[in-house]
Amino acid sequence: MTIPRAILRSARWHTHLVDRGVLSVHGPDARKLLNGLCTADVMAHDTAQGAQLTAFLNAQGRLQTGALLAYGDEVALIDVERAALPALLKLLKRYKLRSNAHITDRSDELAVVATSATVDEPQMRLGRSGCGLWRDPRLPYLGWRGILPRADAEKMHIAGSVCAPSSLYDLQLLLLGIPNRQMDTPAAEALPLESNLDLLGGVSFDKGCYLGQELTARTFFRGVTRKRLLPVLRQPLAEAEATAAADVEALSALPTAERLLAARLPRGLDGELLLSGAVPPAAELNALTDKAGQLAGKLRVLDASAGLGLALCRLDALGGELATAAGEQFVPLRPSWWPDYIEAHADVARPRA
């Protein structure tokens, strides 16, 4: 798996996210139903602002899956990882009860796309059906994202934009330390605050009750989040020289720190970026220990070719080096978009109002 140099040198690109599915919740009670099951405040969201990040939890407050919600007239479209879709569909149907809402898997007819290019065409903006493109609600660096009829997605064209592999989009999220799949935030194990969903605007602490709220609210109001999901880089790469910035123009929207990180990643003979895809390591190799031999984190996923992964780490491990049981060394990195109050030795979730 590689990203050609020609694509890396293009600041405008788009891609079809084939690993995403789409659920539709349609009817007068669609938003009310979702509001009681997810972490975001669905009822208070201004649909004119585009889509909304959220998460669905189990009764114990552990993540089932993250998702993006796009709204139309009495319809909400749920952009969710295909691997997590069956379990989410089952959850929604279990709690539907007498709600006047119809839940449908529309993955065969609708597709999810993303682009780094600004979308100026009004006909491509989010419409009354819930389809269209919107600014990614998580971070401004992520460009535009959307749900389109599958035929339109497969022949998507934006002026001056090149068609890129979805691995480029995945790399962008990996560099920023943003969870994207259940491998990053294992179902029934990961917690929303440790997964940075609060920092990305996906958790409301002002709305009423929802499934799994108790543990999330208690963690927040106690002000304690000692571990967070963050990028880790194989030690030799952390000391490597960055290539020319022009070679990572495709990631020019990212903050300087993440662009320089991308410029350190291994290249092929023709300048292509070498990737193998981020996957979970063997169970006996996912523990990360500090120099004192103390457990400091857990490696969630690693792209072995790029030497870049995601790990759930203690915040006080930032600035040090961590090792696996096989002796492989990694450096935990503080994402540049994190708020200033999250320091290397901080244990607060976020300031309270």
Please explain how this structure is put together.
By secondary structure, the protein is an alpha+beta fold. Helix content is 17%, strand content 26%. The protein contains eight helices and 18 strands. The chain has helices spanning 5-8, 30-35, 85-96, 150-154, 166-176, 213-222, 235-238, 256-263; strands spanning 2-3, 13-16, 20-26, 52-57, 63-72, 75-81, 102-105, 110-115, 132-135, 144-149, 162-163, 227-234, 273-274, 287-289, 295-303, 308-314, 322-323, 329-332. Strands 14-15-16-12-18-17 form a six-stranded antiparallel sheet. Strands 9-10-8-2-11 form a five-stranded mixed sheet. The chain has a five-stranded antiparallel sheet with strand order 4-5-6-3-7. The longest helix has 12 residues, at 85-96.
Spatial separation of the terminal alpha carbons: 46 Å
SSE succession: EHEEHEEEHEEEEHEHHEHHEEEEEE
The oligomeric status of these chains comes to: single chain
Q: What is the typical, i.e. mean, pLDDT?
A: 89
Described by strand count, sense and barrel closure, the largest sheet is: 6 strands, antiparallel
- As a percent range, the share of helical residues equals 10-25%
How much of the sequence is in beta strands? 25-35%
Query: What's the total number of strands?
Result: 18
Structural class: alpha+beta
List the strand order in the largest sheet. Answer: 14-15-16-12-18-17
Number of helix segments? Answer: 8
Which parts are unreliable, with pLDDT below 50 for 5 consecutive residues or more?
Answer: none
Q: What is the approximate shape? A: globular
Q: Which value, in Å, is the CA radius of gyration?
A: 20 Å
